[in-house]
């Protein structure tokens, strides 16, 4: 896409600090560096979000995540964990509409990164949960 910042980074029209690249992906530092080593993994093919992947592209992109995550962790003995985030849609905090995975190294509980998971335990009945599951199952593809 002509106006996509990630496509421009992939095409070297905008500089980035690249840590890994192959025919399918480019992994580079997020300019925000939420924590030191914060890396984005993007497919070279422009896909908007997780819903736009075909199975082949998904396999080629997502199989590299563990390798890159291990390299980031091994690069700094102070890293004690890592958040791996993939946001889809503006409401889910996707700010660039080119699919990307955030690898956010964690150094402590107080390292300026947080996530909040609401606890809705017991809000839905067992019947409601079963109905939700059936609705999803009807749309699964093998």
UniProtKB/TrEMBL annotation:
A GO term, aspect molecular function: catalytic activity
GO biological process assignments: nucleotide metabolic process
Ranges of residues in domain HIT: 5-113
Top-level division of the source organism's lineage: Bacteria
SUPFAM superfamilies: HIT-like
Active-site residues per Swiss-Prot or TrEMBL entry: 100
Residue window of motif Histidine triad motif: 98-102
Cross-referenced Pfam families: HIT
UniProt xrefs under PANTHER family: ADENOSINE 5'-MONOPHOSPHORAMIDASE HNT1, HIT FAMILY PROTEIN 1
Name assigned to this protein: HIT family protein
């Amino acid at each position: 896409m002509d106006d996509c910042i990630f496509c421009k980074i992939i095409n070297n029209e905008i500089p980035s600090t690249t840590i890994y690249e192959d025919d399918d992906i480019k992994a580079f530092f997020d300019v925000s560096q939420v924590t030191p080593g914060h890396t984005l993994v993007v497919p070279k093919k422009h896909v908007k979000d997780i819903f736009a992947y075909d199975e082949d592209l998904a396999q080629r992109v997502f199989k590299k995540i563990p390798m890159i995550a291990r390299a980031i962790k091994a690069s700094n003995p102070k890293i004690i964990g890592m958040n791996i985030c993939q946001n889809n849609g503006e409401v889910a905090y996707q700010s660039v509409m080119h699919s990307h995975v955030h690898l956010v190294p964690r150094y402590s509980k107080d390292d300026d990164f947080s996530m909040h998971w609401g606890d809705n335990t017991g809000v839905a009945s067992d019947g409601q949960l079963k109905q939700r599951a059936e609705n999803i199952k009807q749309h699964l593809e093998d």
